[in-house]
Specification:
single chain, five-stranded antiparallel sheet, extended
Length: about 700
Amino acid sequence: MARVHRNPALALIASLFLACICSAALAQDQMGPHGQQDGTGPPVAVGTGLPSTEPSGEDGPGQPAVEPAALEGVEQPVVDLAVEEGTGLPSTEPVGEEGPGQPAVGPAALEGVEQPTYQIHDVRIGIPIAPPMLQIQPDQPLVVGEIRPVGGAVALDAPDDYGGAIALRWERSPDDPEQGGAVSGYWISYQARGEGCAPDQVAPSESEPAAQAPPGEPAATEEQWLLWQAVGAGETNLDFEEAKPGCDYRFQVEAVSYQVDLDGPTLLGIPLSQIVLRSPPVMTEFARAQADLLAEDDGLDPRPPARAIAQDKGWDAGGVLLISWDASPDDDYQSGDGFLGYDLLVTQDPEGFWSRATLIGAGEPGVYRPDAAPGEPAYSYELQGIDLQTPYYLRVVAISQPGHSASPVLGPVVPEAAWFDGELFFVVILGLILCALVLYYILMARRGKKAFIRKIAGLEAIDEAIGRATEMGRPILFVPGISDMDNVQTLAGLTLLGHVSKTIAEYDTKIDVPCCRSLVMTAGREVVKQAYLEAGRPDAFDENCVHYLTDDQFGYVAGVNGICVRDKPATCFFQGGFYAESLILAETGNSIGAIQIAGTAMTAQLPFFVAACDYTLIGEELFAASAYLSGDPKQLGSLKGQDMGKLLAMAVVGLGTLLATGGSVAARFGAGSTAERFFGWVMEWLYRVFA
């Protein structure tokens, strides 16, 4: 105690601690068994969470008349709450003679009490929906009851279609939010009648309860209501496009307010059950899905095409049907009298649903041929992307503003694949020309005729760079890129590694080849070993000169940079596929004063190599390096033949430019002239050959 008196701060803290303990004990004595303070709420029966039916005790309001010990072993009665309509709160009236009455709990009783917040969700379809959280306010009690339904709801077969669509229209509920109501949206459910019309019923899971029967109607048995769509408030129309022709459908539209799940949380000790705000359903009409567009002629429709032909397109890879037809007698697209064009319908069952393949306008370029010879169809269209070995039926429908009419059913037509695709005929010709050029130059190289190949500065500098490293007594670093063996740039880099390794073996210089891929490491070791054998120094080969670092991109870069800083190679080769690490590698090599020769076909990395390296092999120069360095007749002949093929392609591009210019000039002197048709035919031929 002497120490406490000598320390006033400790004495003050101890006093405050004792005061807090005493206050907590006093507050506990003044609280009811359910945490309610004296005089702030109705009496609550112990063990029920419900207001007590007994009057308050002498100790004051809010205290239980029966002590908890007196209830032990006594069966508690089940109390039914009467809910006052429109409030969601207990009624002030007694339940009946047989049951005890309930005390009034009005909005005033909610004052000063922290209200819970409940998540609004749609139990019927089992998924959360977007409305905001519902706040229970003291002066705005929950509303329990039905909201008014929609009005003027109809379901009609959608006109002028190919079947499968039903138009739903309704008027907004009077409780729609636009008029200050509580409607959250509308539910559209349906039933289907007819053989094969109703979809398969899916048993509801525990997390997704089954759809409830609408209020006021018996539960569906054989024909269950299927919830099809839920739309937001303010919507008045929707198209049901999943109907099958010949089936009858019944629809209902419900104005709903989303369900509030109050199961679990309590309000003033009174358990509240789930509250549903939903209007009775309306719209019990049955609509029949029909194919109106294929109905009989009513006398106002345009005349159908006089002749229509559907056949498999020959000499192709399959999957293409050729549809040709004569123009309708009412097809005068230049007069603008209301004729619109043609609908191509396709199906695999002529008695079932017809789907639209495409809509072709009257006189559409590329499909309509105004210069068609007599007896040839004026329209021709290729229907692509269909299944092989599958029968198809087609119809051509003439459309105008007054109506429409369809041709007879065409088919069945079965698309088949030919043994040779005629569209690739000119590709074969070009391939043969290119092969002939390569074989010719290989033969000339074997006979000793030298083909002109321009000098590549980076390849010419290889021997000089290796000699410099030999004189300085420092190693050579060769980086084959970070790509694997499936990249042609890696193969080209390893080819160049073979030539460099052979020269290094002759000069007795050390080489270091760090690899980012295990397969590249294995192939690189074999290439270097073969180079030492060809140089006559197999004993000087050390397989550890080609080693593996890591597959990680920047981990590999860090390892290579560490080799550069520690060993300070005199020459660095970067040959292969590179990405974002190109500039890091090149800058590190440049900082140690090494001669750097880079080569890659990655166009995005070439600027970095050009800026930081002494020599750079750009694009195809990397692939031509092996032929350039080896002097092999086969490689030289292949290289020369490919160059001639490129020259031929450049000539075709130039010819196409001239022809396009000539066609444009000819069109100015007269549309449809012979010169314009000639230029157009040549341009189309070139496009089909080289596209």
